[in-house]
Amino acid sequence: MKSILKNAVAGLALAAAGSFAGSAIAEVTVIHAGELLATPGKAPKKEQTVVIENGKIKAVQAGYIDAAQYGDDATVVDLKDSFVMPGLMDMHVHIQGELSPSGDSETLRWSSEEVGMHSVYFAKKTLMAGFTTVRDLGAGSPQHVYALRNAIDRGWVDGPRIVASGGVSPTGGHGDVDGMRHDLLEKYTSKTICNGPYDCRRAVREAVKYGADVIKITATGGVLSDTNTGTGQQMTDDELKEIMDTAHSLGRKVAAHAHAAEGINAALRAGVDSIEHGSYADAESIKLFKKSGAYLVPTLIAGDTVVQMAKSSDFMSPAIKAKALRVGGDMLSHFEVAHKAGVKIAFGTDSGVSRHGINAEEALLMAKGGMEPMEILVSATVNAADLVGMSESLGTIEAGKHADIIAMHGSPLENLDELLDVDFVMKAGKTLKNKN
Ligand SMILES: [Zn+2]
User: Fold this and answer.
1) CA distance 50 to 32
2) Whether residue 221 sits in one domain with residue 108
3) How many A from CA of 324 to the centre of ligand 1?
4) Rounded alpha-carbon distances, angstroms, from residue 182 to 41, 171, 179, 234, 431
5) What CA–CA distance (Å, rounded) separates 89 from 360?
6) Distance in Å, CA 331 to ligand 1 centroid
7) Do 268 and 150 fall into the same domain?
8) How far does residue 326's CA lie from ligand 1's centre (Å)?
9) What integer pLDDT is reported at residue 85 of this predicted model?
10) How far apart are CA 271 and CA 215, in angstroms?
């Protein structure tokens, strides 16, 4: 019994280290980069060499250094015709599913195991699109995502590093289940639905106990919940405060889904680490964002997607359709104001609402909202790493960090469309895609 427990603990430690990458682990790889953006926010440099050993970056050097000096077995990756940068990071995905007219019936027909395998498929698609880290903000069964996260960390399947959430929501709130027969609703109601501050304290502790890296809360109503309860504040101030205190005391950050300004502001006052969507952020929100240093994760592509779906298909209920058209249409203008005012922004798509694998399309919408290409790249690397508390190991190409590296043929600083066509993906020193 004891040794089983010990093995389990050792396994957890390995998963936490997150750098085990199978057979690639003992090899040296030398990348010759035509143009290297080692640290987004600083200017890229031409003709650089990146040396990778044991899954981590060992050195970045000017010029094309001869690989032989790193041993006879060193592998050379020729990216002399490419723009090379750190792997992209998406701070808001739902890796378990994808919104579609047939989505609800799939949820009811498929076995839990099939849903799990579907997540594996979506994870691979996301990685191949150049996203080497994602933060999964829940829906469905968190245990699927924790299992996927651990399987990826152990090198069993290929996918992005996953920072996985446990969801905490009030009864009938956006994070609760809806739209089913009542006996099914009871069956699928999560243990982390809570009401009142002390119950929410319990819910946060349970989420952490069962595997959450981060706590996701639904501070306001949401677009895709079919309860006709609007998009206003749903968690009370005392619940929010208790959630933040409990999560932070357990070393977990809190991400708050929030549309209406009063819900955004209440979450910011309570000390939330990021606001997801932030669709109706107002002048007070901007003050609070700047005071607390919280990030805005805009998910503009989600707004765009639900507007298109509301217009072109009939599977949304009247309540959802009305919210989709209103909120989706309003997101970009509020984002523009928040960005102009200097709110810190971390890249996030809400993929699962939009299709997995097209995450980079968010960048085009961010540009439409007034962000410069370099700011967008910073939001998807340096800022995202900061938001998940992993700046020491992710976000830039610097000695000691994980070798999560992507490349494309042209510079996204000149043409953002290049992000949609990533030709090379390396994660933890393992080359997973190379179209060169
Ligand atoms: Zn979401």
Assistant:
1) 7
2) yes
3) 14
4) 51, 14, 9, 22, 48
5) 10
6) 14
7) yes
8) 17
9) 98
10) 13
pLDDT at 194: 95
Judgement on whether residues 80 and 99 belong to the same structural domain of the protein: no
Range of the domain at 304: 88-387
277 C-alpha vs ligand 1 centroid, how far in Å? Answer: 8
Residues with CB under 5 A from ligand 1 (ion): 350
Token code pair at residue 42: 């600083």
Q: How many structural domains is the chain composed of?
A: 2
One domain, residues 345 and 412:
no
Regions of the chain with pLDDT less than 70: 1-26, 102-105, 226-229
Between the CA of 14 and the centroid of ligand 1 the distance, in Å, is: 29
Residue where the block lists tokens 């998406």: 90
Residue with tokens 């000691």: 400
CATH number, domain of 358, equals 3.20.20.140
What size, in residues, is the chain? 436
Task: Give me the CATH number covering residue 12.
Answer: 2.30.40.10
Tokens found for residue 61: 């050097």
Same domain, 143 and 61: no
pTM of the model: 0.91
Task: Sort strands 131-136 and 161-168 into parallel, antiparallel or unpaired.
Answer: parallel
CA of 133 to the centre of ligand 1 (A): 16
